[in-house]
Amino acid sequence: MQDCRKTDIPVGKRILCAVMFFGGCFALLTVLLPLFRRIINAGTLIGVLGGGMLISAALIGRVANTGRRRVLYRVYLALIALIIGYAGYLSVKMIGSCLDTPQPNSGRTAIVLGCQVYDSGPSVMLKNRLDAALEFLTSSPGSVCIVSGGKGEGEPMTEADAMKEYLISHGIEPSRIFTEDKSLSTEENLAFSKRVIEENGLPEGSVIITDGFHMLRARMLAEKQDIDALSFPSATPLHLLPVYWYREWAGVTYTVLFS
User: Fold this and answer.
1) Could you give the CA distance from residue 203 to residue 92 in angstroms, rounded to a whole number?
2) CA 227 vs CA 132, 145, 195, 198, 249: distances in Å
């Protein structure tokens, strides 16, 4: 970064160098910190690659002072700008998908998407989803819910059973809770939950309850299943949000291209 402060480098370029360098450091930090809690996913790789590209662009800028180097550097910057623009577009769509929420007493079927269960109980993110389900069911007494999630590797019980136990222990009548305990992915969550709706004659209008970062992809998959769904996002711990947000950029892209 020292060369980025040389007086022969234009002020605008020095500012760009600084923004890219510290932006890259921030991206790396947001995915490296969760590693201490053994959280690693596609978002980790995206954060590392993105942060590395920004930092390298800041450092390469100091030597991109000849014709050919300058052209290559500008092409590299254009690539970074395209990636940032695409990520920004997805982020706007992800935020927008969380705003289409139901009115109170809407009489809809809430589909609560599963997440990790430990021996000690629901993970933090699953607990937040269940707390959101409690809020929705309390505000809409005419609604019911489907808790959706099978038994993943290393889990002591199905996610659906753990979720049902949590909701009942917090005052929700068992008759309002339906279980779907076979699914192992978001797509299966929704497909199997639709089957529960049809088999039990539940309201076809649905509400998806999941983390805000996950809502866009869940809504996209619901649409493919012809599920009429609104959103009721749960909170995500701030220190975990970036790595999962980055992951969803890949998840949404994969869903668009291959689902």
Assistant:
1) 30
2) 20, 14, 11, 11, 23
pLDDT, residue 19, reads 95
Predicted pLDDT at 222 = 97
Q: Is the dihedral of CA 251, 254, 256, 259 positive or negative?
A: negative
How many other CB atoms are found less than 10 A from the CB of residue 193? 29
Domain over 109-237 is classified CATH 3.40.50.620 = yes
pLDDT beneath 50, residues of the chain: 1-7
* pTM of the model as a whole: 0.91
Residue 87 Cα distances to 20, 91, 92, 105, 144, angstroms = 16, 6, 9, 36, 36
At 8 the pLDDT is 65
CA distance 33 to 12: 32
Domain boundaries, the chain: 2-97, 109-237
